[in-house]
Task: inverse folding
C-alpha cells in the first residue's frame, strides 16, 4: 500500500468527520436540511456558489480542454465573471420573495409565481433531468482521479462505489450543512494545490510563463487563438450569453443562494467571486504545460493531462495530496446535486401528488430519494454509453429553457400565463432532446448559412422555439399571473 492511498483515505475520513460535526445539535427539518435554515453568512454562501464551478470538470476538464482545443476554454472564465455581475441584480429579489413565501427550490418558485403545482412538477422534472448528468460526471471524474493517483491500486469502479456510499451517507445525515463545511476544506485545499501546480510546472519545464507560451506558439500556434469554425468566436459569444442568464437557474445554485441570511450576502460575494474565478488561470497554465510535455493524449484522454503531468513530475505523497483534493472537487458538488434532486422530488413531485400530513414526511421522502438517485447515477456511470453522453449534452440546454418564463415572472406585470410558461418549457425541452438525439442543428438544416451563424450554440434554437410558443399560448390563454395575485417581487 503506497503513501498516496493513506492520504486519499485520510481525506475521506476527514469528509465524514466534518459531516458529523455539521449535523451535531441541529433539528434537521426540511428548511434546515435543504437550505441550511437560511442562516449562512457571506463565507459559506461564497464557498457553496464558488464550489459549483470548481468541480472535477474544472479540475480535469479545464486543463483537458486547453490541452485539446486551447483558447475556446476561456469561455468558462467569461461566463462565470458575467454571471456573478448578473447575480448582483438577480438574486436579492429572488431571495426576498422565497423568504417571504417559504420557498426552498426553483420548482417551488415557479409553482408559487404561476400559482400552478403542475408547472412546479414540470420544472422539478426538468431540474432533476438536468442535475443527474452532473452527478454522473462528478462520479466519473472521481473514478479517474482516484484510480490514477492510487497508481491503479483502486479501480475506477471501486472508487465510484466508495465515493457514492460516502456522499450518500453525509448528505442524508447533514444536508447542506455538511456540504458547506466540506466546501471550506475543499476550497482551501484546491487553491493551494492549483496555484502551486500552475506556477511550479511552467517554471519546472520551461523556465517561466513567457517561455512556455513561446514554446506552445512555436509548435502548436492554433492553441492560442480561436478556430475559424466549430468552437469559433460566435460559438464562444453565444455560449457565454446563454450560460450567463441560465447560470443561477441551475437547481443546485438556486438552492445554495437561498441559504443566505440576507441579500447583502450576494452583493459582498459579487465583489469576490470574479476574483476567485482567476484561479482557473492556474488550471489553464497546467494544460498549456502539458501540451508539449505529455503529448499523444487523444480525445477524452485529454482530461488526464493534469494527472499524467503530475505523476511524471512529483513523488507519490504529492500525488496522494492532489488525488485527495481532486476527490473533494467531486464529492462536494455531488453532495449539493444530490441534495437538490432529493428536494425537487420531495417538495414538488411527492408532496403535490400524495399530500403528506406533515413536513417530517416530506423530509423523509427527500432523504429516501437520495440513495435512489445516487445509485441510479452510479449505474449510468458504469453502464452508460452514447445515451449517457447525449443526456450530458442536453443538461445545460434543458435548464436554459426555464429562463424566459422565469425572467418574465420577475416583472411587475407578468405577460406570461402558466399555460404559456409550461408549454413553452415543454416545447424548448422537446427541441433540445430532438437536436441532441438526432445530432442536428443550424449547420445541418441550412448548410449555406455563414459559418458564424452555423457555429451559434444550438441552445439558441430551442430557446427561440420556447419563446414563440410561450408568447402565442399566453396571448390565447388570457390568464395572467397578475390575475392570480402572485406577481409581486420582493
Result:
Amino acid at each position: 500500500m503506497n503513501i498516496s492511498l493513506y492520504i486519499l483515505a485520510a481525506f475521506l475520513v476527514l469528509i465524514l468527520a466534518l459531516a458529523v460535526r455539521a449535523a451535531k445539535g441541529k433539528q434537521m427539518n426540511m428548511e434546515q436540511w435543504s437550505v441550511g435554515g437560511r442562516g449562512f453568512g457571506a463565507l459559506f454562501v461564497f464557498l457553496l456558489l464558488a464550489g459549483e464551478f470548481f468541480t472535477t470538470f474544472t479540475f480535469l476538464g479545464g486543463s483537458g480542454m486547453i490541452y485539446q482545443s486551447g483558447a475556446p476554454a476561456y469561455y468558462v472564465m467569461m461566463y462565470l465573471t458575467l454571471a456573478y455581475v448578473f447575480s448582483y441584480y438577480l438574486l436579492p429579489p429572488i431571495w426576498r420573495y422565497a423568504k417571504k413565501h417559504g420557498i426552498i427550490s426553483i420548482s417551488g418558485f415557479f409553482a408559487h409565481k404561476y400559482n400552478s403545482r403542475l408547472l412546479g412538477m414540470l420544472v422539478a422534472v426538468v431540474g432533476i433531468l438536468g442535475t443527474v448528468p452532473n452527478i454522473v460526471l462528478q462520479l466519473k471524474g472521481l473514478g479517474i482521479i482516484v484510480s490514477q493517483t492510487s497508481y491503479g491500486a483502486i479501480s475506477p469502479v471501486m472508487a465510484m462505489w466508495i465515493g457514492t456510499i460516502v456522499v450518500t451517507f453525509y448528505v442524508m445525515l447533514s444536508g447542506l450543512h455538511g456540504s458547506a463545511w466540506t466546501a471550506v476544506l475543499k476550497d482551501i485545499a484546491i487553491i493551494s494545490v492549483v496555484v502551486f501546480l500552475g506556477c511550479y510546472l511552467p517554471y519546472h519545464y520551461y523556465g517561466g510563463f513567457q517561455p512556455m507560451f513561446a514554446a506552445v506558439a512555436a509548435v502548436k500556434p492554433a492553441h492560442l487563438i480561436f478556430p475559424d469554425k466549430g468552437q469559433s468566436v460566435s460559438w464562444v459569444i453565444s455560449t457565454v450569453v446563454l450560460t450567463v442568464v441560465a447560470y443561477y437557474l441551475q437547481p443546485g445554485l438556486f438552492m445554495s443562494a437561498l441559504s443566505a441570511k440576507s441579500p447583502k450576502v450576494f452583493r459582498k460575494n459579487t465583489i469576490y467571486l470574479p476574483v476567485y474565478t482567476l484561479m482557473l488561470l492556474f488550471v489553464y497554465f497546467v494544460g498549456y504545460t502539458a501540451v508539449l510535455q505529455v503529448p499523444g493524449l487523444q480525445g477524452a484522454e485529454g482530461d488526464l493531462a493534469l494527472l499524467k503531468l503530475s505523476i511524471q513530475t512529483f513523488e507519490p505523497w504529492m500525488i496522494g495530496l492532489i488525488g485527495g483534493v481532486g476527490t473533494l472537487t467531486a464529492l462536494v458538488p455531488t453532495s449539493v446535486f444530490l441534495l437538490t434532486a432529493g428536494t425537487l422530488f420531495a417538495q414538488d413531485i411527492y408532496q403535490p401528488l400524495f399530500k403528506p400530513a406533515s413536513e417530517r414526511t416530506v423530509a423523509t421522502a427527500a432523504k429516501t430519494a437520495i440513495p435512489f438517485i445516487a445509485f441510479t447515477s452510479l449505474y449510468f456511470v458504469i453502464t452508460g454509453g452514447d445515451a449517457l453522453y447525449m443526456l450530458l449534452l442536453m443538461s445545460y440546454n434543458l435548464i436554459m429553457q426555464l429562463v424566459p418564463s422565469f425572467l418574465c415572472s420577475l416583472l411587475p406585470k407578468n405577460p406570461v400565463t402558466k399555460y404559456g410558461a409550461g408549454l413553452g418549457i415543454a416545447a424548448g425541452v422537446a427541441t433540445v432532446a430532438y437536436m441532441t438525439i438526432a445530432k442536428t442543428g443550424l449547420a445541418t438544416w441550412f448548410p449555406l448559412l455563414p459559418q458564424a451563424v452555423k457555429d451559434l450554440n444550438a441552445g439558441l434554437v430551442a430557446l427561440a422555439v420556447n419563446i414563440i410558443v410561450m408568447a402565442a399560448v399566453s396571448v390565447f390563454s388570457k390568464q395572467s399571473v397578475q390575475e392570480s395575485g402572485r406577481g409581486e417581487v420582493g
User: Anything to note?
Assistant: Residues 67 and 179 are 31 Å apart (CA to CA). The chain has a mean pLDDT of 83. The longest helix spans residues 156-206. The two ends are 57 Å apart (CA to CA).
